[in-house]
């Protein structure tokens, strides 16, 4: 069995009386594509927000690479190697694509204010060149060369999703959290995105944790899947195992409902 | 018509306007980074001016030592104000934050009066020549310095926001704090930095004004003048703040000219910028360079 990169143990999240998550535990192994699925409002995004640090779990523990990160502020998690994208596009609209991606490298840029001032004397210039090269690699990989100088706000939806992915990759994360990377895309864009995710996983060696509604894609590219319903984990395992799980069929595919309707009739 | 006088007034307007612009830029910086409308911006100038005056007269430091020491003090001061007063207010209603900055303004105004008295104090002479003659126009040498400083500050802002890591982080934070955090930007640090820079830049303007007309609590009136400048330019545009400052400076002086030549109403200097403000906002409600917030339903 592969090494565990992310361990979530008994995480609950409450907002006042609302239970967003109840005692959820799971593990993500290094090098896999792990998907979280579930009906709307099941707590998928809440779970991702707990991992990225936007929410702090009411109970439970989250550890990344053996280190307890439950109480770490979000800005300290990025340098550890956790990157994420957002469900609702969150690009810096007035900045160019290139600047958007450069923000992703914030924690890797070592030159501080003073070193930057002596730009030509210090190592800032060599550093910048190295960064530019890596950023260009990402741009090549995601096939967004042609829009690198455009303001991000003017791009089409599919391209914006791609730029957002590029910005998250620029962090050089070991674990990347993708919140509905394919929502609202057409078939072709979805295929491209699936290809990028697989390549990220296999060629770039990133562990992927993904929330996605398109069951076809989830079943095709995931190594393992977890199902949430009303904030509780109801199953996890390989795509086939999960699909066969009776509770999943009831919660996610509404089979039970159909049967009961038939029974009533 | 006295052309020479008119020209002199326009030049004065540009010089004073550049100072307004510098203060406006530091105001916009805070607003952009942390969404706080800082009513104590004028007091930042006042504190800077008093501290520099104190170092120069009581400690007899030469200007080239006293000035940097004063700026170093203002850096720390800006960070402390942010951490102690503004940080606990993050997430509170806007009106609470505004009242806190109004409180800061009153508090520092009184503190400065208590510490340094209510009378205007002249700066020790810094330049050998008080005035220079340029193309037949009389210019105070400190005004030349102020123009140069304003230009340097503007270039500095441009460089900072375009090329530096922290400037980029600041723009990202202004746009979306949550996303910036997810990318490893520490938002509390960005806030503290924006207040520090803003305090320093305001202090530079404060010292220049202090050198020209002496330091007194009246100096913080510049903080009020900054509002038409900033709103003219659009609250969240740094370039707009600078241009707004220049416009207000020139308008003031032109209004004074018109008033003295024909109207004789008196006090047009102070009112004209606000008339212009109302007119421009009628035509462009988001200011000249402000971000339009279009809500799609």
Strands in their spatial order, largest beta sheet of chain A: 6-7-8-3-9-10
The CATH first-level class of the largest domain in chain A comes to Alpha Beta
Query: Number of helix segments of chain A?
Result: 11
Secondary structure tally: strands of chain A: 10
Q: How many discrete domains of chain A?
A: 2
Average per-residue pLDDT of chain A, rounded, comes to 85
Provide a count of the helices of chain B. Answer: 11
Beta-strand proportion of chain B: under 5%
Task: Return the CATH topology of the largest domain in chain A.
Answer: Rossmann fold
| Largest sheet data of chain A | 6 strands, mixed
The outline of chain A comes out as globular
Mean pLDDT of chain B: 85
Which sheet architecture does the biggest sheet of chain B show? 2 strands, antiparallel
Structural class of chain A: alpha/beta
Share of helix of chain A, binned: 40-55%
Report how far the terminal alpha carbons of chain B are from each other: 56 Å
Membrane topology (chain B): Multi-pass membrane protein
Main location (chain B): membrane
InterPro entries (chain B): ABC_transp_permease, BCAA_transport_permease
Pfam families (chain B): BPD_transp_2
